[in-house]
Design a protein that fits this description.
- The chain has about 280 residues and is α/β, with parallel strands linked by helices.
- The chain contains eleven helices and eight strands.
- It has helices at about 1-20, 35-40, 60-70, 100-115, 125-135, 155-160, 165, 175-180, 190-205, 230-240, 245-270; strands at about 25-30, 45, 50, 70-75, 115-120, 140, 170, 210.
- Strands 3-4-5-6-7-8 form a six-stranded parallel sheet, sandwiched between helices.
- Helix 3 (about 60-70) packs parallel to helix 4 and helix 4 crosses helix 11.
- It starts with a helix and ends in a 6-residue tail after the last helix.
Length: about 280
Amino acid sequence: MSDFAVQATLEQIDVVYQMAKIYPNVFQLADTVAEISSAFSQGKIASLIGMEGGHSINSSLGTLRMFRQLGATYMTLTHTCSTPWAQSANDNSGNVIGLTDFGRQVVLEMNRIGMMVDISHVAPQTMMDTLDTTLAPVIFSHSNALSLCNVSRNVPDDVLLRLPKNGGVIMVVFYPNFVCEEPFIGNCSIFDMIAHIDYIKNLIGIDYIGFGSDFDGIPRVLQGLEDVSKYPVLMAELIKKGYSDSDILKISGQNILRVKKQVEVVSQQLNGLYPPI
């Protein structure tokens, strides 16, 4: 299965390249914060490549490095299934595994080559092990607060409390199943999403929150937050609650750009110290 995952990921990266080529006035491939800023200044969509699941590298550091060469800027350590080296949030084996020794090597090599480590989708012990291992800030690309919605995909408070020291960001996800504990009764809304933002802000601060909507990967949406056209509505509701312009800028991009920049800095430092693994 992992052999196929490598091919599938390569083909999906090819689609990103082709879209940027076909629509050059809309999309611009971006690998660094400087390139993201350049695209934004030209009124284009900065197109970053991500990999949602460590199965895509088939337990190979060489494959990981080649994906980075192709422009992959982050990798989620697992998806819905565990890899041989990292435990997924959906692992029902009853065992607490977290990261193996090889999994720690993956995290450190991602630090060295300038790839953001994404710990959405992983088990709590994997989150903890990653935070114990990484030399750069991490991201949760699309997760919410477990205290408000008790599903395995969300993040426990003891993990959230470690984010400020690490410098990472949790990017809140708009999927009703991860927002409300009873998402099927039809009243899970934008205000429930804001409750997660409020909770995380009060727990660890505004500097560690971003938006990770997951509009491209969810079968149902929140009332009042159905698609990207509703972002202004979300911003307006946050302003009504007392969020400042500075707060809004941080959540909507500055925080994740800070993380991306620090990942670049750590990579530059490690490339001078660590030989390739």
